[in-house]
Amino acid sequence: MHEPLFEYIEAKSELKLTDEERLLIKSKFQPKRLRKRQYFLQEGDVSKYVAFIVKGSARMFSVDDKGHEHIIRFGLESWWLNDAESFISLTPSRYNIEMLEDSELLIISVADAYELRDKSRLFDLTIKAMDKQASMATQRRIHAAISMTGEERYDELVNTYPQFLQRFPQNMIASYLGLSPETLSRIRKNLMSK
Amino acid sequence: MHEPLFEYIEAKSELKLTDEERLLIKSKFQPKRLRKRQYFLQEGDVSKYVAFIVKGSARMFSVDDKGHEHIIRFGLESWWLNDAESFISLTPSRYNIEMLEDSELLIISVADAYELRDKSRLFDLTIKAMDKQASMATQRRIHAAISMTGEERYDELVNTYPQFLQRFPQNMIASYLGLSPETLSRIRKNLMSK
DNA sequence: CGATTTTTTGAATCATATCAACGTACGTGG
DNA sequence: CCACGTACGTTGATATGATTCAAAAAATCG
Fold first, then answer.
1. What pLDDT was estimated at residue A106?
2. What is the CATH number of domain A3-133?
3. Residue among A150, A174, A155 at smallest CA distance from A59
4. Helix B181-192 vs helix B170-177: angle between axes, to the nearest 10 degrees?
5. Triad A161, A166, A168: Cα angle to 5°
6. A139 and B84: CB-CB below 8 Å?
7. A37, A86, A119, A145: least CB-packed within 10 angstroms?
8. Which residues on chain B are in Cβ contact (under 8 Å) with A80?
9. Which of B's residues 20-79 have CB atoms within 7 A of nucleic strand C?
């Protein structure tokens, strides 16, 4: 069950885990199964855990006054789930995290995550690598959101995350891109004829 | 010259620097002065340095095919400057970083930054705290960009970063919000009459 | 298979961009 | 210190991209 996490850590840190370190990490990460449509985090709750996705997928989204959902980000195998804002400041979350497929997670509490970063150099390096990658990805996304048309943003998504198209329904892709489902449908129709 | 950086590190890490650590940090960060309109990073260059802003301000922006500029983020005192994407992957940057006021920076190379994180626990804690804060801020910004109208985004900026209105011209605020200068002008006019 | 969800299409409407013109503020060299 | 040039902000008219609402078609699920 923990094997994919170990592989992830060794890949990110570019180092090999000792048996001792494996045991330590295993002791802090609890397996958790969530079925499709179950929530990992609900709006108003405080995000006390981070999850590593072993298998499955999820979306983090907010709901506005009009009841429209906006997808902040998706999660797939080897990605992490949590609301940075709530997790860090320990305030109630404005977001929901819902599983989109039957999933297997490995969860760790805030306190244990800090402790583990202190005790395991590899784990610490892994989180640093993840932070860097995340900051790159969010910088790109902000750039796309403020400077591109819907069609350009869809184009970039097709190139950057082609898996999304296989795994997620089109109306969720639209929400992720900040478009209405109808608009994305029309954009795709348009691209067909080119 | 390095005093503001020391204060920043002690505030973020919630610990006190030793004299030894101060010397080490001082030896890695070079002072650099840039005047208004000078560039810290130009599109096409690789971002090899990170800068801590002691005094002054800057903007990071891209230029699209039509020659329009899009501001990804601003920098002010105690903020950091670099292009995450270029810095991390050592690829030529798609962005420019230009000083908006005569500024004093403390710059550190990629290699030295890694080394310093290894050698100074306080510096490492500081960067971790900064990463967390940055991930919170970018999550908020993405949420705003994909789910809010121009007026709502301006409103949020007024509440979150009121300093921006004092320090930066309105057309740059518009660019940061992903709006044309004309649209922001009209939004402000609208808000006046409420 | 029927029921529900997702996608598509059309028409009307809204938000924002674009282009052009004008007024104002600003800083820079003479 | 003034005058000029450049940058900035506002306003109006028009164009465009995207949303909304409604309905039908297609896909998916139990």
1. 98
2. 2.60.120.10
3. A174
4. 100
5. 85
6. yes
7. A37
8. none
9. 66, 68
User: How is domain B3-120 classified at the architecture level of CATH?
Assistant: Sandwich (2.60)
A135: chain B residues, CB-CB within 8 Å: 84, 88, 131, 134-135, 138
Q: What percent of chain A has pLDDT over 70?
A: 99
pLDDT in tens, A68-88: 899 999 999 999 998 888 877
Write phi, then psi, for A126 (nearest 5 degrees). -60, -45
Q: From the first residue on, what is the mean pLDDT of each consecutive set of 10 residues in chain B (194 residues)? A: 96 96 97 92 91 96 87 96 84 93 94 95 94 90 94 96 95 96 96 80
Rounded Cα distance between B80 and B58, Å, is: 10
The answer to whether the predicted template modeling score (pTM) of the entire model surpasses 0.85 is yes
What is the reported pLDDT for B194?
65
Residue A176 has pLDDT above 70, yes or no: yes
Which of residues 108-167 of B have CB within 7 Å of strand C? Answer: 149-151
DSSP symbols for chain A: --HHHHHHHHHHHTSPPPHHHHHHHHHHPEEEEE-TT-EEE-TTSB--EEEEEEE--EEEEEE-TTS-EEEEEEE-TT-EE--HHHHHH--B-S-EEEESS-EEEEEEEHHHHHHHHHH-HHHHHHHHHHHHHHHHHHHHHHHHHHH--HHHHHHHHHHH-HHHHHHS-HHHHHHHHT--HHHHHHHHHHHHT-
Residue keyed to tokens 């940090």: B25
Q: Are A159 and A151 in contact (CB under 8 A)?
A: no
* pLDDT, position A194: 64
| Bases of strand C lying below 7 A from some protein CB | 6-11, 15-20
